């Protein structure tokens, strides 16, 4: 599928998904994905390995600004971020959402697996901590799984932005 065709509205995604064979397993993750880096690529590859199809809920420009990531964010506009994600082999679909959380999107698409990355010790992640992931109660309610993946240390858009602003000085 051409990468531009991977960018869908939620309604178009749902219609497309219903046409696929029932053996499919949908994995969902979300984020801003502002300056794509090795940490993002690794995370998306690991998320994709949990099912047959990976859909990324992408924070719109408006919802990104509401996440308190600073006045300079997002650095890239939502269309650019969406198309860059769609060009990745591991990403099957991208849906942009405007809400402060992806809860409504998750509730509409009903993924089999909900995945988030985090900077806590996932080996000691208990049920109460998993429940802090937006949509976890809903996904578990329809029999789905919730997974937390480790982040690749040293890679973040915030760190890249800081390095650029400091003219590359560490």
What topology emerges from the helices and strands here?
Blueprint: H1 10-18, E1 26-31, H2 38-48, E2 53-59, H3 61-65, H4 78-86, E3 93-97, H5 103-109, E4 113-118, H6 127-130, H7 136-141, E5 145-150, H8 157-165
Parallel strand pairs: 1-2, 1-4, 2-3, 4-5
Describe the structure.
With 170 residues, the protein is of the alpha/beta class. The chain has one domain (3-165): HUPs (Rossmann fold, 3-Layer(aba) Sandwich), CATH 3.40.50. Helices cover 35% and strands 18% of the residues. The protein is built from 8 helices and 5 strands, in the order αβαβααβαβααβα. It is globular, with a radius of gyration of 16 Å. 31% of the residues are buried.
Strand order of the largest sheet: 3-2-1-4-5
* Portion in strands: 15-25%
**CATH homology-level superfamily:** HUPs
Mean pLDDT: 87
For the record, what CATH class applies? Alpha Beta
What is the CA-based Rg, rounded? 16 Å
Q: Can you summarize the main beta sheet?
A: 5 strands, parallel
Name the overall outline. Answer: globular
Number of domains: 1
Helix content: 25-40%
- How many E strands? 5
Number of helices: 8
Poorly predicted regions: 120-124
The helix/strand series, from N terminus to C terminus, equals: HEHEHHEHEHHEH
Which class best fits the helix and strand makeup? alpha/beta
How far the N terminus sits from the C terminus, by CA atoms, comes to 41 Å
């Amino acid at each position: 599928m051409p990468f531009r065709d991977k960018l869908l509205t939620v309604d178009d995604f749902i219609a497309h998904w219903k046409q696929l064979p029932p053996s499919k397993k949908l994995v969902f993750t979300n984020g801003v994905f502002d300056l794509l880096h090795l940490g993002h690529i690794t995370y998306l590859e690991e998320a994709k390995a949990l099912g047959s199809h990976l859909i990324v809920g992408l924070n719109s420009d408006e919802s990104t600004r509401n996440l308190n990531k600073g006045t300079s964010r997002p650095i890239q506009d939502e269309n650019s971020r969406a198309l860059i994600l769609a060009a990745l082999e591991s990403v099957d679909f991208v849906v942009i959402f405007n809400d402060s959380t992806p809860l409504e999107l998750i509730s509409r698409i009903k993924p089999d697996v909900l995945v988030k990355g985090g900077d806590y010790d996932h080996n000691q992640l208990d049920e109460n901590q998993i429940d802090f992931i937006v949509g976890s109660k809903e996904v578990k309610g329809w029999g789905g799984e919730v997974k937390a993946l480790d982040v690749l240390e040293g890679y973040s858009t915030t760190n890249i932005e800081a390095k650029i602003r400091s003219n590359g000085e560490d």
